[in-house]
Design a protein that fits this description.
Helix content: 25-40%
Number of domains: 2
Structural class: mainly alpha
Radius of gyration: 23 Å
Strand content: under 5%
Number of strands: 6
Shape: elongated
Largest sheet: 2 strands, antiparallel
Strand order of the largest sheet: 1-4
Length: 324
């Protein structure tokens, strides 16, 4: 079974006119697909035999566009993959009359399905498989209550690809921009993104233990960073794996930092209020936070284009004590 080879210069032609609320960074998506298909990971590997496309004529011209495939009822990720393959190596196009009717997807359904998966990844950070959309708490209630999605999550995934959607990974959401979102969606995004929960206490709760020069510098750097907005490097779906070399584990280091600056009573209140999952316990070898400063956090630069940065107020958090 051969691995899909990619050159997807034409893969996203005319997509913006096809899908009302979906906007795609075409150049970035091309680079993403090239990286995806070159991976050796078995989970993230797409094979030629995974891809199915069809048309009434049983063929597409060599210069076919994404719009051509979508208007024939093909699935989004299969269409992207098909167009990314050199013409001579593309899979055989099946006649539409040999395809089950429920496999043929109209463009409006493609747009809604992309929005569904985009919103799920943006708010949950991962695919939620085999979940009832209306009742399962793993699925954002917004998708059912506001956009009237029903059924099972796997049914939505199946409208976008004939292969398992996990093979596409999750980081493609960085290259999708939803336009025309209503206020409800924007307000939901403004609450926070997956990957940021461990930072939230530092944003909202003042320390109630004396600060050292080191802990004050770390808190200031974190608060200044959070005021800049949200960033793809931190988001669970698109997390930069190189951050751990620079920052250490965020969860372990933030836990140790909180133990230094908050009393046990305050930490318990945070847990009771579900601001944190549980009170942190001391983690050995998690002392990278002692080197965190503005310059280090300024190296995180890929801002999620939702919401606006806030003014940072460099407040006195309490008097520092001499660092031992």
């Amino acid at each position: 079974m051969s691995t899909l080879g990619v050159n997807i210069d034409v893969v996203l032609d005319n997509l913006n006119t096809a899908l009302d609320i979906v906007n795609v960074d075409q150049e970035a998506m091309i680079k993403f697909m090239n990286r995806l298909i070159s991976l050796s990971s078995k989970v993230d590997q797409i094979f030629l035999s995974d891809i199915r496309v069809w048309s009434a004529a049983g063929a597409f011209p060599a210069n076919a566009t994404l719009m051509d495939l979508l208007t024939e009822g093909n699935k989004f990720f299969d269409s992207c993959a098909y167009l990314s393959i050199p013409v001579a190596d593309r899979p055989v196009v099946q006649p539409t009359n040999q395809i089950d009717e429920d496999q043929i997807i109209d463009i409006k359904t493609t747009g809604r399905s992309l929005f569904f998966v985009y919103f799920m990844l943006m708010t949950k950070g991962s695919y939620q498989y085999d979940c009832d959309i209306a009742t399962n708490r793993k699925v954002p209630a917004f998708l059912h209550n506001v956009f009237n999605f029903t059924g099972n999550t796997d049914e939505v995934f199946a409208k976008l690809a004939n292969f398992e959607i996990k093979k596409v990974g999750t980081s493609w959401v960085e290259h999708i921009i939803m336009t025309g979102l209503g206020s409800e969606a924007q307000q939901r995004f403004a609450l926070s993104f997956p990957g940021y929960r461990a930072f939230q206490p530092l944003r909202t709760v003042k320390p109630d233990k004396p600060l050292t020069v080191i802990t004050r510098r770390a808190i200031r750097a974190i608060r200044k960073f959070l005021a800049r907005g949200y960033f793809w490097e931190i988001h669970s779906a698109t997390r930069d794996p190189t951050l751990i070399a620079r920052f250490g584990s965020f969860n372990a280091n933030l836990g140790n930092l909180m133990l230094e600056i908050y009393t046990d009573q305050t930490l318990q209140k945070m847990e009771d209020a579900k601001l944190i999952y549980r009170k942190p316990t001391f983690q050995f070898n998690a002392d990278s936070y002692k080197t965190w400063d503005d310059e280090l956090f300024d190296s995180i630069v890929r801002r999620i284009p939702i919401g606006e940065p806030r003014d940072f107020i460099d407040e006195d958090l309490y008097e520092e004590k001499e660092n031992a």
